[in-house]
Amino acid sequence: MNLRRVVVVVVALIVAAVVVGGLWALLAPVPDLVVEHGGQMRFATEADPAKLFDGVAIFAFLSLGLGALIALATWFGLRSSRGLGGLAFVTLMSIATSALAIDLAGRFGRMAHGALDRSVPGTYQGTVNLWLEGDVGPAWVLLVCAPTAGVLVYLICVIASAHADLGVGDLEPAQAPVAVDAGLAPIDAVGPEVTSEDEGPRTRP
Questions:
Q1: Within 13 Å, how many C-alpha atoms sit on residue 122's CB side?
Q2: Where are the transmembrane segments (predicted)?
Q3: Structural domain contains residue 173
């Protein structure tokens, strides 16, 4: 495997994770929160709770696209690793880049909308916490999106491959079978040809 190519692919996918985090900060709706005296918080309007779900859904779709991109980059960029090695790379890289994108999305969101201070009453623009908490599921549930899409796309590439070695080129070409005639041997191959000069005189008994 070409180490330089691996480094290029890894760096490109890390950049893609940064782009996903930035896109989420731009596309995700921002809920308005009201901090009351005593540090109590509430949503400013009845529509704000739905924005939390919208933010999670947008990141899920972005993660699916990230996983598909990782699979295609691995298939075409790391040709020599096609197979189980490539599938393992897709899975691990999808999890790692998803975690990075979640962390960066929260940071970019707080940078764009400001931090919330419970000690100061007022109205704030909140940032959806992508490390989910509560009854939705485990905190890391969004980490499943990218690996799922990545493994699916990679398996599609494997099934669609027209080569037994998946295009790696590490299999020896099969030798063509030697054709063998099953018919009778020609007469001249059975014995020497007998001419009329070699025949003795024929006499009747």
A1: 9
A2: 7-27, 56-76, 83-102, 139-162
A3: no
pTM: 0.75
Q: What angle do CA 96, 97, 100 make, to 5 degrees?
A: 90
- Give me the amino acid identity at 54: D
Report if residue 8 sits inside a domain. no
Does residue 201 lie within any of the structural domains?
A: no
Number of structural domains (the chain) is 1
Residue pair 128/49 in contact by the 8 Å Cβ criterion: no
Q: 166 lies in a domain?
A: no
**pLDDT digit string (tens) for 104-158?**
999 999 888 887 777 788 888 888 888 877 555 677 889 999 999 999 999 999 9
Q: How confident is the model over 54-105, as pLDDT tens digits?
A: 999 999 999 999 999 999 999 999 988 889 999 999 999 999 999 999 999 9
